[in-house]
Each structure stands twice: as structure tokens, then as C-alpha cells.
Write a structure and sequence with these properties.
binds uridine-5'-diphosphate-glucuronic acid; alpha/beta; 14 strands; Rossmann fold; about 45% helix; eight-stranded mixed sheet
Length: about 425
């Protein structure tokens, strides 16, 4: 099939490359000229394992452009994959989506296009599909269809999530268009759930909000564990073994970050409110997520008494492991707060140092090895769940530190082992 991807960001590139892998011809469009020129030369602007290989392997089926007319000439199913960043009040900014819809409308008219299908992959509030239809209608008077096909891609596992998803959601008020989009996925082994437009849009938000709720729930359980002397890791194992609950997204820590959960939970809360419903549970999910990072700072304060002048090494800057993405990273926020209290910060991350430098002040010392930052440190905070932090030579690190204090914000290390090494160790909810 002939498909277009509008927006060559993380979702667009993974989706486009995967569609090409499934045998479709894909035109990938972006307004960023430089990005498209780089992509044409095989330079992938994001870090996503397996994506470069997939694009390279399918290069004869993928073309890149900045020209919307070319998009409409070459394809008849168009996937909108542009960003929808949060506005001040938490609602999603649809400026880019609207602009794409207008451009599609103009070019549908200009080229007298027929049987066009416009699909939203971007996470958009319920009702956006309807707005897209109205915008295109302003210029293009022939029939076309709007479909919602939300993405469920986790950064760092996005290619696998795309090729082997748990399910595919396709929502439209036009069943023929929905079936046509389903056809794109015919070689993917996953159940396809067909719904109406609004329901598909809602499924995306409800999925992310539910996962975020699981995280805030286990974080609150962890906070009680700290008070009553129970171990949240074992509690998570114990409850997660019940299939109805499931083990995933029950890792207690400093709270969720990234470009999706914080934004989507706030947006669902906001558009529920706008529709006249006070989504109380989500308000708490957001509050708990904010509170988790404060608890880490409280734990540091408890041991260090005065933060001013203390040397703290933060291990991990990315919002989660295996990515260089620092958007809404809890680590960055914690560093900013510690600096406000007068602490001297050094920081290490296996992948995200360059991106973090753009978000943090010059006062942070970025180190190329964890050991360099440990020299003279009064505390280490583990802020991202990078598994390789477990393999550091902790006895040598202890010798370098001024005070052997570890605040493990991701419950990465074994508390007993760390205490055997004579560290003062605190995790989250580990009794
Ligand atoms: C998330 C969803 O998992 C994807 O299904 C969805 O498609 C994507 O958002 C999106 O809307 O585009 P992602 O943001 O890549 O994917 O990250 P996750 O792996 O879900 O992690 C989000 C945050 O939750 C991270 O900060 C992580 O450290 C934290 N987390 C995750 C926990 O604190 N505990 C857990 O048990 C799991």
C-alpha cells in the first residue's frame, strides 16, 4: 500500500520504517529541512535501538520529503505523527496537527485527490479526529475518511512494540476506512480492535493513565512500606503474580517521567474537566508523582542535615534506562532542586549526557565515568534504572566518597549487599 508519514519524529520514523518492513511504500515528510536532508543521507536523528537498521534495510521503499504536495501525490493513507506538546494548563497543543490538516486539505483539493484516509497516530484528545475532518472540509469538499490508530510505543523498545504489539486499535466512524487501515497490519500477529473514532482516541489516554496510576499506586505502597518496615519489591512480586494485576509497571521509585505519561495524564485530567467531569483519581496520580521526588530530597536531607556545600553525584539523567531522552526526567528536576538548596552536583549517564547538558546549568559537573563523580561525594543518588550501575565497582566508589551514602531512587541495588559493604543505603519502600 502507499502510505505517508507526516512528522519525522520518534513515532513517525518508527512507524514509517515498520510499515516499509511490512512491504508498504512509505513517504516520510517533515517541515524540518535539515532533518530530512540528514535522513536522506542515512543519519537518524534519534536514538532508538534497531531503527537505523530497519530504515537502511527498507531504504528502497522509503522516501523523505518536505513537500506536502509530493505526499498527497505518492500516498492515499496519511498518518499524522506530529508532536502535541502540553500547554500551560495541561491540555494538548494541537497547532501542528491543525496545520497538517489544513495542508492536507489544500493539497487534496489541488490534486483532486480521491479516496483519501487521514489517520492520527499522535496522541490527541478525544474529539480531535472530528476537528481534523472539519479543517480539511474547509477546503476539500469531496469524501475522505478520518481514522485514529494510536501508537503504544515505548522508547527504547519501539521497533519491537510496533512489529509485535499486544493489540492494534483502529477507530473510525467509517468502517471501510477502518478495514483499509487494518489491511496495513495484515502480517502483524496481533488482535485488531476496531472502534469508533472517539473511543480509539480515548483508549490511548486511558492506557497511559492506567499505567501511570499503577506506578503512583506502587509508589504510595512503597511509602507505607518505609513506615511499617515492609519491602515494596516483594510486595510488587506478591501482588503482581496475580494475573489480574500483572507484574509490569509496579516498580517503585522517584516517579514517572518522559514525554508521554506526565503530558497524557494531565491532558486526560484536563479534557475530563472541560467535559464537566472531575477525574479525582488522576489528580492524585499527578500529586503522588510530584511527591515522590520530594521524598528523595527529604531522605538526603535526613542524612546530610545541611545540603549547602554538599557534593552529590547523580547517577542517571535519562527519564528511563536505554534512552538518551531527558524530557520531563525526574533526575533533571531533582538536580535543579538540590542546586537550589546549595548542593554541588556531578552527574553521569551512559547515554543522556549531551541532552542533559542542554537542560542543566553550567554548574553541574558532567563526568564520563561514575568513578570520577564519586571523588569526595557526600552522597550518590541513583535517578535512572540503568542496569549497568549494578556492576560498578562499589567498594572502590566507597573509598572515593567522603560519606558512603546511597539514596537509590530506583531500587536498583541490593540493600543487604550495600550495607555489607558499609554503605548507608536507602531505597524506596525497602523497610
Ligand atoms: C509510554 C508507554 O509505556 C507507551 O505504551 C506509550 O506508547 C508511550 O508512553 C507514548 O505514549 O508514546 P515511554 O514514555 O517510552 O512509553 O516510557 P515507559 O517505559 O512507559 O516509562 C515511563 C516512565 O515510567 C519512566 O520514567 C519510567 O522510569 C517510569 N516507570 C515505569 C516507573 O517508575 N515504574 C515502572 O514500573 C515502570
Amino acid at each position: 500500500m502507499k502510505l505517508s508519514i507526516i512528522g519525522a519524529g520518534y513515532v513517525g520514523l518508527v512507524t514509517g520504517a515498520s510499515f516499509a518492513e511490512l512491504g508498504h511504500d512509505v513517504t516520510i515528510m517533515d517541515i524540518d529541512d535539515e532533518k530530512i536532508r540528514k535522513l536522506e543521507k542515512g543519519i537518524i536523528p534519534i536514538h532508538e535501538p534497531g531503527l537505523d537498521r530497519l530504515i537502511d534495510k527498507n531504504s528502497d521503499r522509503i522516501s523523505f520529503t518536505t513537500n506536502m504536495e509530493q505526499v498527497v501525490r505518492e500516498a492515499d493513507i496519511h498518518f499524522i505523527c506530529v508532536w502535541t506538546p502540553p500547554l500551560e494548563d495541561g491540555s494538548a497543543d494541537l497547532t501542528a496537527v491543525r496545520s497538517v490538516a489544513r495542508e492536507l486539505g489544500k493539497n487534496f483539493k489541488k490534486l483532486k485527490a480521491k479516496n483519501q484516509i487521514v489517520v492520527t497516530k499522535s496522541t490527541v484528545p478525544v474529539g480531535t479526529g472530528k476537528k481534523i475532518r472539519a479543517l480539511i472540509r474547509q477546503t476539500y469538499k469531496n469524501e475522505f475518511s478520518v481514522v485514529s490508530n494510536p501508537e503504544f510505543l515505548r522508547e527504547s523498545q519501539a521497533v519491537a512494540d510496533m512489529m509485535r504489539p499486544d493489540r492494534i486499535i483502529i477507530g473510525s466512524n467509517d468502517n471501510i476506512a477502518a478495514q483499509k487501515v487494518a489491511e496495513i497490519y495484515k502480517d502483524v500477529k496481533a488482535p485488531i480492535i476496531i472502534t469508533d473514532l472517539a473511543t480509539a482516541e480515548m483508549i490511548k489516554y486511558a492506557a497511559n493513565a492506567f499505567l501511570a496510576t499503577k506506578i503512583s499506586f506502587i509508589n504510595e505502597v512503597a511509602n507505607v512500606c518505609d513506615l511499617v518496615g515492609a519491602d515494596v519489591e516483594q510486595v510488587a512480586e506478591g501482588i503482581g503474580s496475580d494475573k489480574r494485576i500483572g507484574k509490569s509497571f509496579l516498580k517503585a521509585g522517584m516517579g514517572y517521567g518522559g514525554s508521554c505519561f506526565p503530558k497524557d495524564v494531565r491532558a486526560l485530567h484536563q479534557f475530563s474537566n472541560d467535559s464537566g467531569y472531575d477525574f479525582k483519581l488522576l489528580k492524585s496520580v499527578i500529586e503522588v508523582n510530584e511527591q515522590q521526588r520530594n521524598l528523595i530530597i527529604d531522605k538526603l536531607n535526613k542524612h546530610l542535615k545541611i545540603m549547602n556545600g554538599k557534593n552529590i553525584l547523580v547517577l542517571g539523567l535519562a527519564f528511563k534506562a536505554y534512552t538518551d531522552d531527558v524530557r520531563e526526567s525526574v533526575a533533571i528536576d531533582v538536580i535543579n532542586r538540590l542546586q537550589k538548596e546549595g548542593a554541588n552536583i556531578s552527574a553521569y549517564d551512559p547515554l543522556a549526557l549531551i541532552n542533559a547538558q542542554k537542560h542543566l546549568g553550567e554548574d553541574v559537573i558532567f563526568v564520563g565515568k561514575a568513578y570520577d563523580g564519586a571523588q569526595g561525594a557526600d552522597a550518590i543518588v541513583i535517578a535512572t534504572e540503568w542496569p549497568n550501575f549494578k556492576d560498578l565497582d562499589w567498594p572502590s566508589i566507597k573509598d572515593l566518597m567522603r560519606k558512603p551514602l546511597i539514596i537509590d531512587g530506583r531500587n536498583l541495588l541490593d540493600p543487604n549487599e550495600m550495607r555489607r559493604m558499609k554503605f548507608t543505603y536507602e531505597g524506596v519502600g525497602r523497610g
